[in-house]
Amino acid sequence: MSEIIVKASDLCVDFDIRSRAFGKPDRLSAVRNANFEIRRGETFGLVGESGCGKSTLAGALAHFVPISSGELELNGVRLTKNSPKADWNKARHGVQMIFQDPFGSLNPRFQVWQLISEPMLLAGEDDEKLLYERAVELLGLVGLSEKDAGRNIFEFSGGQRQRIAIARALSVNPEFIICDEPTSALDVSVHSQICNLLLDLQEKYSLTYLFITHNLALVRHLTDRMAVMYMGQIVETGSTDEIFDSYAKDGGESLHPYTRALLSAIPEVYPTPGRERIILEGEVSSPINAGDSCRFAPRCRYCREECKSAPIAGREIGKDHVTCCPYFG
Ligand SMILES: Nc1ncnc2c1ncn2[C@@H]1O[C@H](COP(=O)(O)OP(=O)(O)O)[C@@H](O)[C@H]1O
Ligand SMILES: [Mg+2]
Predict the structure, then answer these.
(1) What residue's CA is closest to ligand 1, atom 20?
(2) How many domains does the chain contain in total?
(3) How far are the Cα atoms of 100, 223, 251 from residue 106, in angstroms, in the given order?
């Protein structure tokens, strides 16, 4: 069994959007030349501000958003834009997703045990007794009980609904779970309960997680390695400890300027006296018809002339640590 569960090489996702009545549609470049790998058993964090392409990238891994170019290796299957459906289905086996909004992703017409066992049903299991028993077992695993099995989803709180969504994801014994902002829609008071549940389950079932969030405190707490994304581009990947420690040590002089700005905005993680919050200035450019040069350049205080035209390229600056800034690291 390979140690690497996901490997993305120059992965791109574009959307054609029509902003004029005539002529060619514009191309919104939502993910551009993404390069990263996720290793078996780890939690890999993906951070970046809202709209930077995190969910699109997750959708590409789970194959509900088609990739435009580049290559993806998923569970040992090599996939490109033209790969047959059978290859995608084979690769996708063992991949599940948990979404931000358990309200929207669970159909209110079903009873809880039906919601939980639905992925098994879709996978071909139709023995109702078995489906019910597995749902009850899963309810126990996520801190609910058999008496919840026949209830309706709208009888539950947000945190409980997310527990149900987690039970549902687990029903088909996945190896890899993509958690797309799983706590963002919940009260802060239940964040840690859901995170601890995810950690317990990971240990119990040796799960691999892609944990997507814009909450850096959660990234620090939960992830082993991380990627930072800005407007469709992954600007830095590395071990979470190394990136955060580097910020604590010298204000992140060796980090990508965008990573540094992001980390400076979380005083609760590093309340270092004298360290300023970096306020990003400059205009935010648009991902529409955007190219390969650094998309952060218009907001970067260290931007040089060549940053505006040269394509960005990853550069290894330490063990496992890659930055796309040619000047820092
Ligand atoms: N189906 C779609 N069609 C057109 N544009 C889309 C579509 N889905 C996402 N986008 C655009 O892609 C960009 C990335 O969106 P998204 O992946 O949802 O970001 P995030 O999850 O980081 O908030 C945004 O500019 C968004 O408007
Ligand atoms: Mg999103």
Answers:
(1) 51
(2) 1
(3) 12, 27, 43
Nearest ligand atom owner, CA of 99:
2
* Residue 204 within a domain: no
Distance 144 CA to ligand 1 centre (A): 34
Say if ligand 1 is within 6 A of residue 17 CB: yes
Position in ligand 1 atom list of the atom nearest CA 17: 4
For a pocket test of ligand 1, which of 14, 17, 28, 99 has the largest count of ligand atoms closer than 8 A to its C-beta? 28
| In a domain? residue 155 | yes
Residue 274 belongs to some domain of the structure: no
Q: Which numbered ligand comes closest to the C-alpha of 181?
A: 2
pTM listed for this prediction: 0.94
Q: Is 287 in the pocket of ligand 1 (CB under 6 A)?
A: yes
**Are 285 and 217 spatial neighbours (Cβ–Cβ below 8 Å)?**
no
Residue 270's closest CA among 225, 322, 220, 316?
A: 220
CA distances from 139 to 86, 97, 152, 168 (A): 32, 18, 14, 9
Report the nearest atom of ligand 1 relative to the CA of 180. Answer: 21
Q: Please enumerate in sequence order all residues whose Cβ is within 8 A of that of 318, keeping only pairs 6 or more positions apart, or say none.
A: 238, 242, 329
Whether ligand 1 lies within 6 angstroms of the CB of 32 is answered as no
> Does ligand 1 come within 6 angstroms of the Cβ of 51?
yes
Residue 157 lies in a domain: yes
How far is C-alpha 293 from the geometric centre of its chain's CA atoms?
23
* C-beta of residue 205 within 8 angstroms of C-beta of residue 41: no
pLDDT along the chain (329 residues), means of 10: 91 90 87 97 96 96 95 95 94 90 82 96 94 97 96 93 96 96 89 94 97 92 97 97 91 91 76 70 84 94 92 93 90
Full residue range of the structural domain in which residue 154 is found: 106-173
